[in-house]
Amino acid sequence: MPAQYAARLIDHPWDVTGRNPSKRLSKVVVPDRGADRRAVGSLRGVPPTDAELDTAYSARGTVTPERFAHLMERYRAASKSATAGLPGLSGIVYDEASGEQLDVWGAGPGRPVFVFLHGGYWRALSRHDSAFMAAMLHGQGVATVAVDYTLAPAATLEEIVRQSRAAVAWVHRHGPEHGLDPRRIVVGGSSAGGHLTGMTMVDGWQHAYGLPDDAVAAAFPISGLFDIRPLVRTHINEWLGLDEARAAALSPALRVPPAERR
Description:
The chain has 262 residues and is an alpha/beta fold. The chain contains 11 helices and 6 strands. The protein has a single domain (3-261), classed as Rossmann fold (3-Layer(aba) Sandwich), CATH 3.40.50.1820. Helix 3 packs antiparallel against helix 4 (50-56) and helix 7 (157-174) packs across helix 8 (192-201).
């Protein structure tokens, strides 16, 4: 997500606990068009330089380290508060190969489930920061699954995508044991999690996991990175280690069937 948008979202967060719906509507994110234009090139079609791309994709560079740490602590505190007292189970290993875990919150018989894949540019955050919506969804009869995955550079992006899909497969197979309806799985995530959400929606991977093509009933990506080819030219590639071909193969926007692009 370009930095100018990230900065606006960080400086004006919604009430992530969901306990004051009116508050959630009180903030409007207005993109800084001028700053975005300066970051990625002019409207005359001048290609952005590597330095401009690096600035545009440096979300963390828009706030001080202290401010960033404070905001991340708010995510974790909100998640802890939102899951307090909810029915569910924490620390379930969903992928034997990696040992990665997920949490199920708001479990109940036949519930639709929201599977959340956290952001953090594939190298930060965890499931413990990512359940702030659980209380609100529980009140609406929806369960929440917060997923961990191995962070880069300890894992390649291909491996992170594989783990995200394995989490979906676990919910589809084992969700009924926790009162989750496998026919109503919605996957969502923000920033890098939006990218991973997109990679659960593309064709061609489901059969390897024994899943139907429509295992993911719907998706809710938020500020996702759907064409990640520009990242090859930024500092983010220091931990992703991508080349152009791999970045293209891992871009959900380039994996949409032609008939659906039109």
